[in-house]
Amino acid sequence: MGYDIDRFVGYVNEGLLCSICRDVLEDPLQAPCEHAFCTACIHGWLVHHGNCPEDRQMIDVSLLRPLYRYMKNDLNRLQLHCKNREYGCEMVCSLESIDRHERECEYSQIPCSNAGCTVQIQRRNLDGHLAVCEYRSRECPNGCGYTILSAEDTQHNCVAELRTELELLRSEMICRVEEAKHEMESRLDSQRRHMVQKESILQNEIEELKSQMSRMMSDVRSLMAAERQHRQELEQAELEKREL
């Protein structure tokens, strides 16, 4: 939708009106046939139609182009009233600067910034409203450190609030202790499994060493037996030599 033509000061050229909504062009696009439309208007039209609403020539979204520069300049120079005129704003701006003004306009209706408050109030009156808003927050005057809403003043109980917080902290501490306990048990189980695995490996190595020692002792005994046999043979040979 375009800008309401009744907001404008003075004459508005027919070529600067949207061919669909008949208001002053907002975010304009132009068809190849040179008819101009608000972007929202022409996109909505082309969902159900495939032609220009003025001369019925076939058009497609891809054929739409920005407004000619001279038309864009004429559009931006138009003077119009702020949309908050009904609330007291008397500002008249060019179309080019109206959005910037309305974002900062003191007569704009804005929501209260306090959570839970649904009041809409003019920006210029916001500070005054915040000072008396029933949803405004403040620190407890009794020193418990809690932030309370004015609407909850009669219900606030420092002792009850602190007891609740203490219970929450206690529950959180118990949970953390349990988590630490489970984590430690998990680590101990992991270390225990690792130690058992290492013990098994060491036991296998010991058995292998015992086997190697057994083979070596057997070899030593065989060598000693062979040496005795060899010595006996030498002694026998020596006796025979003497007899000869």
Automatic annotation (TrEMBL):
GO molecular function, one term: zinc ion binding
Domain RING-type: 18-56
Gene3D superfamilies for this protein: Zinc/RING finger domain, C3HC4 (zinc finger)
Single GO BP term: regulation of canonical NF-kappaB signal transduction
Coiled-coil segments: 192-243
Top-level taxon in the UniProt lineage: Eukaryota
InterPro entries in UniProt: Znf_RING (IPR001841), Znf_RING/FYVE/PHD (IPR013083), Znf_RING_CS (IPR017907), Znf_TRAF (IPR001293)
TRAF-type domain residues: 101-144
Membrane-spanning segments: none
Annotated keywords: Coiled coil, Metal-binding, Zinc, Zinc-finger
ZnF (TRAF-type) ranges: 101-144
Listed name of the protein: E3 ubiquitin-protein ligase NRDP1
Protein species of origin: Opisthocomus hoazin (Hoatzin)
